[in-house]
Design brief:
Elements (H helix, E strand, L loop, with lengths): L1 E5 L15 H4 L29 E4 L5 H14 L2 E3 L7 E7 L4 E8 L4 E9 L3 H17 L8 E6 L6 E6 L5 E3 L7 E6 L5 E9 L1 E8 L5 E5 L5 E6 L6 E5 L6 E5 L7 E2 L7 E6 L6 E5 L6 E5 L6 E3 L8 E6 L6 E8 L2 E8 L4 E4 L6 E7 L5 E7 L5 E7 L8 E2 L8 E7 L3
Parallel strand pairs: 2-3, 2-4
Antiparallel strand pairs: 1-6, 4-5, 5-6, 7-8, 7-30, 8-9, 10-11, 11-12, 12-13, 14-15, 15-16, 16-17, 18-19, 19-20, 20-21, 22-23, 23-24, 24-25, 26-27, 27-28, 28-29
């Protein structure tokens, strides 16, 4: 249960182009690792151009155990900035009132009055804090948060890649499989109750579905050839599969996970990485229809492929449709001798590169707010970790969500409960 009552009187600062002075103050930004138990970092009195685009808040009388979690959320978001009480515009106090209940009061430093108070009571205290952070974002910035979501991803912590589930900040994680085989391509169902994935646990690559409530494991695709992926339509039971039963990997559609799929694409190219639009009406895929992998939109009625002119690289893969801004999608491209995450906008027909550096950035996945992007960062040695990036705050740098105690993590999938 979530009770909310507020009278909000602040408008978020609009974003403008970050100047070169950002480079002089980059050292003062909070550290990159999340979930290490560090106390919130109080920034100095000199603001960089990046900091000026963020709303400064302090956590009032919030107890240390709660403030450590809230502080992580604030540092990751990008639209907010943790400061001392003397520098903040809002003071938010989070208090525990029982095993799972969190009560929050937000005071404006301008009026010196409580402008908002609300409570969050979820299944556990961490989720209650996360949902309370989402409401803080909504009230201060006027946009939805994403901290109440959950992730599924791969980790090699046991020596083999297995599926794990964690909260959106990766403060804790639990293994969901223990096959000791090759497991990949995890993807939430559209209710957040289970996970589709591919594994060779029965010798050949088949697609499985794990119901997290009853722990039942079902085989949903075990056709001749390779059964490579399943992604469910966000608006229906429909599932898009990547199957090679016809000879090469193509898109197949099924009306439900247990229904027999029908072949959608009919060509000699290889298709992979389907991504549904948020309304469930459009589908992006990767195809080497012209020899090298590029991003295409595929008609869900005819199977016709239409190439998206990203004009950034001859190697573009792994599209992921923005869940709130349907004119945009993120993808991976070979750029400058490595792989980087990019974003394409249908409206402007422009591509922008979101990541940079010597480490490879791959496997993007949007959070539910359409602002934050999860992705896998791979070092030159082959180690991997999951990162998150605020794509709207120019000059923002990616933040690592975990350390070595989580193992090498990759292929994240995000779900936010309704």
């Amino acid at each position: 249960m979530v009770g909310i009552k507020f009278n909000f009187d602040f408008q978020a600062i609009s974003l403008v182009e970050v100047t070169l002075i950002l480079l002089l103050h980059m050292a003062f930004l909070p550290g990159p690792l999340v979930g290490q138990g560090n106390a919130p970092i109080v920034l100095g009195s000199i603001e960089s151009e990046l900091e000026k685009k963020q709303v400064p808040v302090d956590l009032g009388n919030t107890p240390p155990m709660i403030s450590s979690i809230v502080g992580k959320a604030i540092k990751i978001h990008g639209g907010l900035r943790m400061t001392s009480p003397g520098e903040s515009r809002f003071s938010a106090t989070f208090m525990s009132k029982g095993q799972t209940l969190i009560e929050v009061s937000i005071a404006s430093k301008f009026s010196k009055k409580i402008t908002s108070s609300y409570s969050c009571d979820e299944a556990n205290i961490n989720l209650s804090i996360a949902k309370a952070c989402d409401q803080l974002v909504r009230e201060v910035l006027g946009v939805p948060g994403f901290f109440g979501g959950k992730l599924c991803f791969l980790s090699n912590l046991s020596g083999k890649k297995e599926i794990f589930v964690s909260d959106a900040l990766m403060t804790t994680a639990r293994p969901q499989t223990s096959f000791g085989k090759i497991t990949f391509n995890p993807s939430w169902d559209n209710q957040g109750q289970g996970i589709f994935f591919t594994s060779n646990r029965q010798i050949f690559n088949n697609v499985f579905y794990l119901n997290l409530k009853n722990r039942k494991l079902s085989t949903v695709a075990n056709y001749r050839g390779s059964n490579l992926r399943a992604v469910q339509n966000p608006r229906s039971n429909q599932v898009a599969f990547i199957l090679s039963t016809s000879g090469n990997p193509e898109i197949w559609l099924a009306s439900s996970p247990t229904s027999k799929p029908s072949r959608l694409t009919r060509n000699r190219s290889n298709e992979s990485g389907p991504s549904w639009s948020s309304d469930g009406r459009r589908l992006l895929v990767t195809s080497d229809n012209r020899g090298k992998p590029q991003i295409y939109e595929v008609s869900v009625s005819s199977g016709k492929l239409t190439r998206i002119p990203t004009n950034i690289s001859s190697h573009c893969t792994e599209p992921t449709w923005n869940p709130r801004q349907t004119t945009k999608f993120a993808f991976t491209a070979a750029v400058g001798g490595g792989f980087q995450v990019c974003e394409y906008d249908f409206s402007s027909r422009q591509t922008r590169i979101l990541t940079k550096g010597i480490r490879h950035s791959i496997q993007p996945c949007w959070a539910s707010d359409g602002r934050h992007l999860y992705f896998t960062e791979r070092s030159t040695s082959g180690s991997t970790r999951i990162m998150i990036l605020d794509t709207e705050l120019e000059g923002a740098i990616p933040v690592a969500l975990h350390g070595a105690t989580f193992g090498n993590c990759s292929q994240v999938s995000f779900y936010y409960p309704n």
